[in-house]
Structures are given as C-alpha cells and as structure tokens.
Design brief:
Number of domains: 2
Helix content: 25-40%
CATH class of the largest domain: Alpha Beta
CATH architecture of the largest domain: 3-Layer(aba) Sandwich
Low-confidence stretches: none
Strand order of the largest sheet: 2-1-3-6-4-5
Shape: elongated
Distance between the termini: 18 Å
C-alpha cells in the first residue's frame, strides 16, 4: 500500500496516510506520460504567428532597373526575399497545433505519473488548507513546514478553493493551484512536491479511479 506523510493545517507532521491504490499503485507507462506531456504543451500553443511571403508584401510592382546593361545583377522586384524588406521564404503561417489524446491514455498517463511521484515520496497530504482571509505569508509558512517551499516547485491540489485561499497562494513563487477534478499529467511531472488536501484526495479517487 502506497503511503504519504500527512500534515495538519499548520504544516506540522501528523503521521502517514494510505494513498488510494487505484491512483498511486498503477503500472508506470512512460510512453503514455510522454504523450500526455507533449499533447499538453502542444495544446498551449496559439498558432497565430504569421509572416509575409513575396506575394504578400506591398509594393515591388515595377522592375528596379532594366534587365541588361547596368552591370548589376538581374532584379525583377524589390520585394524579392534577397532584398531588405522583401518577402520571407517558407515563413510560418497560422495553424492548429492541437494534439488529440484519447481519455484512456490520459488516465494511464496521470496514474503513472502519480504512482511515480508517490514512490519518490513527493506526494504530501494536508488535512485542510483553507483561509478566512488572504494570508500569503501564512500560506508560504505552511508549505515551508512541509518542506514543500521554497526552492521547490509545488502543485497544490484542492477540492474547493475559497477566494481567500486563491489570493493567499497567487503571489507565492513556484506554487501552482489546481482543482482535484482538473489534475493533469504535465502539472504532476512539473512539480517537485505535490500537496493534496484530504478532501481533494477523496475527490481524485472518485473522478480518476475508474
């Protein structure tokens, strides 16, 4: 049974807890993890970059000089790619970069990454992580007590995030918040430490166990 250290709301150690076998004891499939990360990064690209080819550049309708007798190289237009201000050769144009990944592969990749992080001892469970008022210093202090901050990239998984919790975390460098039902493989691979609340852990089991 996979286990993780559990902490109270102040970040003090409170022993260990069993992690759901369905999520944290899966067979590791590195190929699926790679596919999921590549797909995630590709889907972040906007694909809006554009360049003008010689037919798109304004001007250049008149031949710069006559074909023969000038001693200069032949030229038909000032918008040639050889000229400054001319068109671009084989430049990029708007395109769709999205990569489709089926649901089964996504599940396998997520479970593989979670299992790998649990085996490395990088999954930490906290009983509660809620604030009545925004307290960035307090939030950072809790993570520091858990050895998940600073000098570490930390993924914090919450079941339900209050506005105060979101405001407490948004200025803490290297910390990324996500909902339990929106955890993805890239975030798991990106983080050095994964901090999961007890409620979020149960929610993850409900959503991803099948």
């Amino acid at each position: 049974m996979a286990k993780a250290n559990i902490f109270d709301k102040d970040g003090a150690s409170a022993g260990t807890v069993d992690l759901p076998k369905s999520l944290f004891e899966a067979e590791i499939n590195e190929f699926a993890v790679h596919e999921a990360v590549v797909a995630y990064l590709a889907n972040q690209r906007q694909g809006t970059v554009n360049t003008k080819e010689r037919s798109d550049v304004a001007g250049g309708g008149k031949k710069p000089w006559k074909q023969k007798g000038t001693g200069r190289a032949r030229a038909g237009t000032i918008r040639s790619p050889l000229w400054r201000g001319g068109g671009t050769v084989f430049g990029p144009h708007p395109r769709e970069h999205r990569v489709k990944l089926n649901k089964k592969v996504k599940r396998v990749a997520l479970k593989s990454s979670l299992t790998s992080r649990a085996q490395s001892g990088d999954v930490l469970v906290i009983k509660s992580l809620a604030f009545e008022a925004p307290k960035t210093k307090t939030f950072a202090g809790v993570l520091k007590n858990m050895d998940a901050y600073p000098r570490k990239k930390t993924l914090v998984v919450l079941d339900k995030a209050t506005a105060a919790t979101l405001k407490s975390a948004r200025n803490v460098a290297g910390v990324r918040l996500t909902a339990a039902d929106k955890v993805n493989t890239y975030d798991v691979v990106w983080a050095d430490k994964i901090v999961v609340t007890s409620d979020a852990l149960r929610r993850m089991e409900e959503v991803y166990a099948s």
